[in-house]
Design goal:
5-stranded antiparallel beta sheet; 3-stranded antiparallel beta sheet; 8 strands
Length: 225
């Protein structure tokens, strides 16, 4: 919660497992309580374009229910991310140009530019288990990562979630500064249907941050160094 005190804002936080209270004296408070698609004023109703709870249903070629009209980005549904919208725009351009193209992706990486940074690709262990899959998890701490130590920034870890039976990589999650630059490898691994062995046996340059993904993959296989 937060309260105004003079020209300041005092924020109250819950810290730790016991939920102990801590306060922060701040200049300003930025509140992000969610987003919604910006569809008003586009004239969609007049054109007969179907809108459901603010979103415009589309097929894999980003076509709406009205011929010649396409929708991308926030209008086309979650996740509301710029790189997802950009790829959808490419699909639309290719379809209009007569090429065979469609939105066909296994995962869309997401990044939180906080401190430490957070990045994720694929699904979490909980999501995999709810889908009926047995999983194994491997983690590797930045505290043991050479590049993080050299950077004097060792808060964080890499985490790899795999299917216990097939070793398929289901999700990769990274917490720590540098995570946004590391997640591309994770997205590529999931997109190509990589196994944990593919990550663990790929030689990574040392000292670099992506070694955390390699080591986490090894850990998921019980082969952590």
């Amino acid at each position: 919660s937060w309260v105004e005190k003079g020209d300041r804002a005092v924020v109250t936080l819950e810290v730790g497992d016991k939920g102990e209270a801590a306060t922060i004296d701040a200049d300003k408070v930025l509140v992000a309580v969610g987003r919604r698609p910006n569809y008003e004023g586009l004239g969609l109703e007049a054109l007969g374009v179907r809108v459901e709870r603010g979103f415009v249903p589309v097929d894999r070629c980003m076509r709406t229910n009205v011929g010649g009209i396409y929708a991308i980005g926030d209008l086309a549904g979650q996740p509301m991310l710029a790189h997802k919208a950009s790829r959808e725009a490419e699909v639309v351009a290719e379809v209009i140009a007569g090429h065979r193209a469609e939105m066909d992706v296994r995962c869309i990486p997401a990044v939180i530019f906080s401190d430490p940074e957070i990045a994720t690709a694929g699904i979490t262990a909980d999501e995999a288990q709810k889908a009926g899959r047995q999983v194994k998890i491997g983690k590797f701490p930045f505290a043991a990562l050479g590049r993080a130590i050299a950077n004097a920034d060792t808060d964080g870890f890499g985490k790899v979630v795999i299917d216990a039976a097939t070793k398929e990589v289901l999700g990769i999650h990274v917490v720590g500064n540098g995570a946004p630059d590391m997640i591309a490898e994770a997205a590529l691994a999931i997109e190509m249907g990589a196994l944990a062995d593919d990550l663990s046996l790929t030689i990574h340059a040392h000292p670099t941050l992506p070694e955390a993904i390699m080591e986490a993959a090894k850990a998921s296989l019980g082969e952590a160094i």
